[in-house]
Amino acid sequence: MDQSSEQEVEDWNDILADTLTIFQKSPFGKRTKNFDRVIDLVAKWMGMNTDHCSKAKKTTRLVGEQKTDAVQQILGEKDMLDKSPEEADAELEKFRAKMIEDTGGIAAWNALDKNEQAIHIASMIKDAVKSIGESLFSDLSEEEQWELEFFIWAGCGCHKDMNSVLGGDTAMRAWWAKTNTPGPILLANRDNVVTLNNIQTPLENDAAIEHALNVTTRGGVKTASIAGAIFNHKDDKKGQQDTFRWWFKQSGIPINFPNTSSNRYGSYCAAAAVLLQYRDKFLTFLEFVRDKKDHRVFTNMERNLFNALQCKPTLTELATLALYAQAITHPYMRYIRGSNGMTANMLDLGPLHLEVEQHIDKVIANPDLLVSANSTYVTGAMDGKEWETPNAVAAILKLAPELPHLSDLVVEFFTGARGSWICFTSEFTPGGLIDEATHLQKELAWMPATNDLNEGILGKFRTFMRGKPSTTLHMWNAQAMYQHNGTQKFMDSDFDEDDHKFVMQEARVRDASHLEPERKEKVIVYAQKKTEKKMEGVRENAKKKADNLIRLDAVTLILDKDVMGNTKGKKLQDQLDAFYHAGAPLPMKKQITKADQKRDALKVVIDIYNNNNGTWPEAAVAADIGLEIGRIQNDGDLHSDGE
Asked: Strand pairing partners for 48?
């Protein structure tokens, strides 16, 4: 299906329309008569809670604009209903006159049949109501407008922290090159490890080595990812997960390694803490895994992890990741996911996010809060409560004297994380919507502090469908909403016999409506339309290229340097394209973008062509011509006036 924001808004409208239709048909809806139209529901929509991607923000903006339109339409309708028939007719007269004028005048209007006139009149009334509503809305005070069009967005707290880790890690990894300090060892995959074996710096003009270096990663996050793939792979047929758990349990350490193969909040930081807390055990375990094999050799991943756990720069990054989680991530998560998080309104958490920034600033100003021998959770943790994993912190502080750059990396990481927090908590900016909202508005627009519900339901759906693949999406949605919304309790308190009969009848109708095949058909139809549109573009581009080749074939090459020196504008570009088409060994187009450069390049290849009996010699390469052009321009020879 179309994944655009516009389609998502349309889907929301379809859901509201479908829900309202069922509600109005039901005995319960007929008794309560709460809502008449979708527009009434949209006007009461107070906000959206999503992740932080640009598409989600655009969807929120479009829904907010739709709410404003709904509010204005309702204002216009109310104004017309409050008027007497005579007043309403007089109000519509100017719109009626414009409608007749737009159809071509009174004669053309009278020539229309009644059905066509009815369509025009309905459209005219809709436009009139909208215009009246817009005018009334603009006449309201800013406070009144604020109350009516209030629509707010807030992002998931877990995504905020996850992105802060990304921001911190990006800054930390850049620190090594920025300070010209030897960084973590390369952790090459098995395809590049042979290429990079024993190579410290790329050999000149060795493209294979340069490519291998460019695609090879290193550092704390990569190490944690490798460890996760070995000790807790998402595919239970891969890795050493069973052996890992049994071996560690026998050693008196019953642990499961953090899941880094899924995109989970703080998983790399948690993995870093475990790796440092039990580093010696992990090294011993890896040797055990190696030695029990017939040939006593590591796999490439095992070797990478074994080496990384003995690399001081890599250990420094792991320590920084773990300390950030102890100081910021865990206290923050304890609040938004703990007992407070179950009832906390995300819109009330501006002070919490300010506290995060303030504590980060404290650590940046004084990293000894985390890395000195006297560090304690009282001043190191944001909430002043016990470290999430005290033994991991103790192991880091014991190792800290061997990590001379730990304080520097902590400052760099926290600085990068701070920038991300500011970016991803922009909705709490002083003077913004949330900051200016009243307590009642925040209550009406209540949002959970995390997006865990959606993320969790998606995971449950995938697990459920593995066991029952024939279940339709509509049936799954119905069951999920029934369980989450407390539907049984609502039915017990508000349903009568007619309501139960209606629900059963509607369920049978839906079962017979082939909703799932229709949904799948829409997916295929959309994919086909998208593919056809793409192929139209391919065909159009191919035609343009073919037409351009025909055009270039008709261009006569100018082989006189003096004439070329006076060539300008489109004619010069045509000559350049024609020379490329003819196989002239010119530099890449991005290297000759100015008119003087184009003329000088063409003069060089004209000389080559004329001196080689009207051919392009294989030895004449574009790079050499580029050097020649540079020499000519530096000497001032053959340099024509610029355009």
From this structure: 153
The 8-class DSSP code of residue 402 comes to: G
Name the token pair of 341.
């998080």
Tokens representing 339 are 């007992």
pLDDT of residue 511: 81
The pLDDT score that the predictor gives to residue 203 is: 46
Question: Count of residues for the chain?
Answer: 643
Helix (H, G, I), strand (E, B) or coil at 555: coil
- Backbone dihedral region of 219: left (phi > 0), alpha (psi from -120 to 50 degrees) or beta? left
Low-confidence ranges of the chain (pLDDT < 50): 202-205, 209, 211-213, 215, 619-623, 627, 635-643
Evaluate the CA torsion angle 460, 158, 154, 55 in order and state its sign. Answer: negative
The conformation of residue 637, written as its DSSP 8-state character, comes to T
Q: What would the 3-class secondary structure string for 314-368 be?
A: HHHHHHHHHHHHHHHHHHHHHHHHCHHHHHCCHHHCHHHHHHHHHHHHHHHHCCH
CB contact set of 349 (below 8 Å; sequence gap of 6+): 157, 336, 428, 449
Q: How far apart are CA 333 and CA 507, in angstroms?
A: 41
The tokens 């908590």 sit on which residue? 425
Distance of CA 499 to the CA centre of its chain: 43
Encoded tokens for 138: 């603009």
Distances in Å between the alpha carbon of 541 and those of 531, 577, 583? 15, 17, 22
* DSSP-based three-state secondary structure for 473: helix
| Domain range summary for the chain, segments of one domain joined by + | 1-150, 159-436, 561-635
Note the pTM of the prediction, 2 decimals.
0.75
Q: What is the CA radius of gyration of the chain?
A: 34
Residues 6+ apart with CB under 8 A from 488: 482
Q: What is the per-residue pLDDT for 417?
A: 95
Provide the pLDDT for residue 620. 44
Q: Which residues of 57-68 are buried (b: 16+ CB within 10 A; e: fewer)?
A: bebbebbbebbb
- What single string gives the DSSP state of each residue in 413-466? HHHHHHHHHHHHTGGG-TTSHHHH--HHHHHHT---SSSHHHHHHHHHHHHHHH
For the stretch 440-491, pLDDT in tens is 999 999 988 887 777 667 767 777 777 788 788 878 888 888 888 889 999 9
User: Which pLDDT value is given to residue 168?
Assistant: 95
Q: 377: closest CA among 338, 317, 328, 418?
A: 328
Beta bridge partners of 218: 186
Q: What whole-number distance in Å separates Cα of residue 619 and Cα of residue 35?
A: 80
Beta bridge partners of 456: none
Q: What is the pLDDT of residue 451?
A: 78
List Cα–Cα distances, 248 to 233, 235, 242, 386, 534, in angstroms.
17, 20, 10, 25, 54
